[in-house]
């Protein structure tokens, strides 16, 4: 059983016990502030449980190197965080093991490839938030998450703050 708190004696998550099977889809529902994002961060090993342990096939998540986690987990956050660099860098996170073909395939999958080709330097264009709408940023986030074809996808309120037309497109992707 896993517990977690940011402040002593103020548990965010209390006695969480999950056993998720291969190819199983799970939905965590709850009001804002209920701990869904915190649970994802624990699963990803970005946070350590206050008590208990989180394992993947018997291996403690915190013992898996970060470069390996990207091959295991795809994580789509509520908002997209740009890094310094090109459009391609936004997807690869500057991981040289990720080939241009994989980036293009991920962008085609989310429907952004044609838009990227209209940019001055295409995939080599210096990325900035003003180049992308809120919906396009969510699609970038999905492309970033799927580029390594991870077996586990964590989707955290991926349609929050989007208009209904864009939400429909994101859900389709």
Question: How does this structure look, described?
Answer:
The chain is an alpha+beta fold. It is 35% helix and 14% strand. The chain has 7 helices and 6 strands; from the N terminus they run E-E-H-E-E-H-E-H-H-H-H-E-H. The protein has helices at 36-43, 66-72, 87-92, 100-110, 113-118, 134-146, 164-172, and strands at residues 2-7, 10-16, 55-56, 59-60, 73-76, 152-155. The strands form 3 sheets. Strands 1-2 form a two-stranded antiparallel ribbon. A two-stranded antiparallel ribbon has the order 3-4. Strands 5-6 form a two-stranded parallel sheet. A hairpin with a 2-residue loop joins strand 3 (55-56) and strand 4. Helix 4 (100-110) crosses helix 6 (134-146). It starts with a strand and ends with a helix. The mean pLDDT is 89.
Secondary-structure topology with pairs:
Elements: E1 2-7, E2 10-16, H1 36-43, E3 55-56, E4 59-60, H2 66-72, E5 73-76, H3 87-92, H4 100-110, H5 113-118, H6 134-146, E6 152-155, H7 164-172
Helix pairs in contact: 4-6
List keywords for this structure.
173 residues; alpha+beta; globular; two-stranded antiparallel ribbon
Strand content: 5-15%
Query: Oligomer, anyone?
Result: single chain
The tally of beta strands, per DSSP, is 6
For the record, give the distance between the C-alpha atoms at the N and C termini, rounded to a whole number.
34 Å
Can you describe this structure in just a few lines?
This protein has 173 residues and is an alpha+beta fold. It contains seven helices and six strands, in the order ββαββαβααααβα. Strands 1-2 form a two-stranded antiparallel sheet. A two-stranded antiparallel sheet has the order 3-4. The chain has a two-stranded parallel ribbon with strand order 5-6.
């Amino acid at each position: 059983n896993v517990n977690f708190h940011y402040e002593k004696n103020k548990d965010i998550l209390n006695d969480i016990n999950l056993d998720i099977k291969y190819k199983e889809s799970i939905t965590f529902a709850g009001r804002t502030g209920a701990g869904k994002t915190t649970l994802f961060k624990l699963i990803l090993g970005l946070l350590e449980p206050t008590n208990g342990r989180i394992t993947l096939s018997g291996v403690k998540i915190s013992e898996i190197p970060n470069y390996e986690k990207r091959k295991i987990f795809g994580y789509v956050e509520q908002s997209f965080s740009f890094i310094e660099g090109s459009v391609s860098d936004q997807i690869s996170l500057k991981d040289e093991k990720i080939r241009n073909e994989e980036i293009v395939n991920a962008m085609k999958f989310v429907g952004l490839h044609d838009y990227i080709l209209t940019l001055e330097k295409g995939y080599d264009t210096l990325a900035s938030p003003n180049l992308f709408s809120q919906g396009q940023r969510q699609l970038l986030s999905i492309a970033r998450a799927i580029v390594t074809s991870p077996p586990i996808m964590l989707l955290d309120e991926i349609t929050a703050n989007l208009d209904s037309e864009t939400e429909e497109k994101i859900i389709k992707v």
